[in-house]
């Protein structure tokens, strides 16, 4: 095959490749279907020109030995492989969708896209430039080990992000609580970190490797209603059943708590000084805990004033006073 016969085909493929890139960018990111059609049309046209001219896109032929023809042929083949990669990726982005599981679909898409880019890169290096792929892979393996050691923390975050995405312990918008007491709403989750907006309106950035190791409670699932427990002590001069009935009736008047399921007054214990009990009620969301607790505390204070009940001191104070009395020496 002569130099003169190769040049028109190479020039046509180069023009089609560059024009395809220009048109592809003009479609914009919000028109994936149009982009895919453009990619397929230009890739098909480039392939047809190469096949009709008898030029294999995957290897250099003997006629390309003269200066400018080598450059034109190399550019044509690189553009052909690039368009092949983009057409494949466009198809993946458009058609690989997991119903109601956007995070998993995005993860699978990203992994396949990375594999496509890696395969096309190796193909260009091996077929177009004639580099030994075996040696390159062996060298890249050594480089990968070195980079793996240098980027150990980053890779740990990356694979932890994959595990969190597949395991789905939480989703964007969920309210989570960590073992160290940190809690808030998940506002962003990517490959490296997870961002949580706390009730204090602070943005906490948690590396995925750290998040995968700590205990995590999802307060949003199965729903956002949240149980709040308020311990109180009422002096034992009142009958426990009467105190329970009074507090249960007053809880039904509170506006900030959920009435279904109904709030509970749980008797926990009794001694000579006080009745220990817990007021158990639910709120619509974790962020509503403070207003609900404030309302219930105010209700308990008003209830004691209205019904003649008295709050008892904490048991630790009585134990401390008793210990002081036992250890006190009698006056001379």
TrEMBL record:
Highest rank taxon of the organism: Bacteria
Molecular-function annotations in GO: mechanosensitive monoatomic ion channel activity
UniProt keyword tRNA-binding present: no
InterPro entries in UniProt: cNMP-bd_ion_channel, LSM_dom_sf, MscS_archaea/bacteria_type, MscS_beta-dom_sf, MscS_channel_2nd, MscS_channel_C_sf
Transmembrane segments: 6-24, 36-58, 78-98, 110-129
Localization of this protein: Cell inner membrane; Cell membrane
Gene Ontology cellular-component terms listed: plasma membrane
Keyword terms of this UniProt record: Cell inner membrane, Cell membrane, Ion channel, Ion transport, Membrane, Transmembrane, Transmembrane helix, Transport
Domain Mechanosensitive ion channel MscS residue range list: 153-221
Membrane topology: Multi-pass membrane protein
Functional description taken from the UniProt entry: Mechanosensitive channel that participates in the regulation of osmotic pressure changes within the cell, opening in response to stretch forces in the membrane lipid bilayer, without the need for other proteins. Contributes to normal resistance to hypoosmotic shock. Forms an ion channel of 1.0 nanosiemens conductance with a slight preference for anions.
Family the entry assigns: Belongs to the MscS (TC 1.A.23) family.
Subunit structure: Homoheptamer.
Protein name per Swiss-Prot or TrEMBL: Small-conductance mechanosensitive channel
Organism: Endobacterium cereale
High-level lineage: Bacteria, Pseudomonadati, Pseudomonadota, Alphaproteobacteria, Hyphomicrobiales
């Amino acid at each position: 095959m002569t130099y003169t016969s190769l040049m028109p085909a190479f020039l046509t493929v180069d023009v089609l490749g560059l024009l395809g890139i220009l048109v592809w960018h003009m479609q914009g990111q919000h028109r994936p279907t149009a982009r895919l059609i453009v990619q397929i049309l230009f890739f098909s046209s480039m392939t047809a020109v190469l096949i009709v001219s008898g030029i294999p896109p995957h290897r250099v032929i003997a006629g390309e030995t003269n200066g400018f023809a080598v450059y034109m042929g190399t550019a044509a083949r690189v553009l052909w492989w690039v368009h092949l990669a983009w057409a494949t990726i466009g198809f993946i982005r458009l058609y690989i969708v997991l119903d109601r599981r956007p995070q998993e679909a995005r993860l699978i898409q990203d992994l396949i896209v990375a594999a496509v880019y890696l395969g096309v890169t190796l193909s260009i290096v091996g077929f177009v430039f004639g580099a030994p792929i075996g040696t390159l892979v062996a060298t890249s393996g050594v480089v990968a080990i070195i980079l793996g050691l240098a980027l150990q923390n980053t890779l740990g975050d990356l694979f932890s992000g994959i595990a969190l995405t597949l395991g789905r312990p939480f989703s964007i918008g969920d309210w989570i609580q960590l073992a160290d007491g940190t809690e808030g709403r998940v506002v962003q989750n990517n490959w490296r970190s997870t961002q949580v907006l706390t009730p204090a309106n602070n943005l906490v950035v948690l590396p995925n490797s750290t998040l995968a190791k700590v205990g995590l409670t999802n307060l949003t699932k199965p729903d956002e209603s949240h149980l709040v427990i308020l311990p109180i002590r009422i002096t034992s001069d009142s009958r426990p059943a009467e105190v329970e009935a009074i507090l249960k009736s007053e809880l039904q008047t509170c506006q900030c708590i959920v009435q279904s399921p109904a709030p509970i007054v749980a008797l926990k214990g009794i001694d000579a000084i006080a009745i220990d009990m817990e007021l158990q009620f639910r709120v619509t969301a974790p962020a509503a805990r403070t207003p609900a607790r404030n309302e219930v505390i105010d209700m308990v204070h008003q209830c004691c004033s209205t019904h003649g009940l008295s709050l008892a001191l904490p048991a630790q104070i009585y134990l401390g006073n008793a210990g002081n009395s036992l250890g006190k020496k009698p006056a001379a």
